[in-house]
Amino acid sequence: MNKAQLHVLTDAEALLVLETEKSALAGLDEDALVELHTRIRRARGKYVGQYRRGASARVRDVGGRGKANAQNQRARDKAEIFEESLSRVSTALAAAARASAAELKSERLESARAAKANPMAAAPAAAGGKAAAPSGSRAKTATKTPATKKRNASTLATGARRQAKRDSR
After folding, report:
1. Cα torsion at 54, 55, 61, 67 (round to 10°)?
2. DSSP per residue over 61-97, as a string?
3. Residues 45-82: pLDDT tens digits?
4. In a 3-state reduction of DSSP, which class is residue 144?
5. 9 with 61: CB under 8 angstroms?
6. Distance between CA atoms of 144 and 150, rounded to whole angstroms?
7. DSSP annotation of 21
8. Please, which residues have CB within 8 angstroms of residue 77's CB and are 6 or more apart in sequence?
9. Is-above-0.85 flag for pTM?
């Protein structure tokens, strides 16, 4: 982005754009990047909306969208600046998210390896401190899948139809 474009911005907007420089983004963690991404996206949305509303309001007066554009240069420049800034922040956020996901995956794999290496030590911790169930018994699980819900509803409906038939006699 060139310096002429930066002169279009207010001081607060210029500071926001400067937060998106590569050196400033390097020191931010994922949460800070998400917050910055939100602020930049809001600013971009504001100026894109202003540009579109302004251009569409002048179309009838000047005779076309192309002619209406030139009168709304300031909002268009600001929208472009914030679009570039948003692109930089999005790229940094994606990189931070990939790094975070890789870290979580390695932690999860490490704990799985530790549990596999010593299953007796990991069993109480995995069960939330409760004793593990005996190996021959099966724990009763109450899973409500769509198929079981449908089967239960069908059974109830069949019984209701049968009762209604009896009652109508």
Report:
1. 140
2. HHTSHHHHHGGGHHHHHHHHHHHHHHHHHHHHHHHHH
3. 998 998 888 888 888 888 776 777 777 788 888 899 99
4. coil
5. no
6. 10
7. S
8. 5, 8
9. no
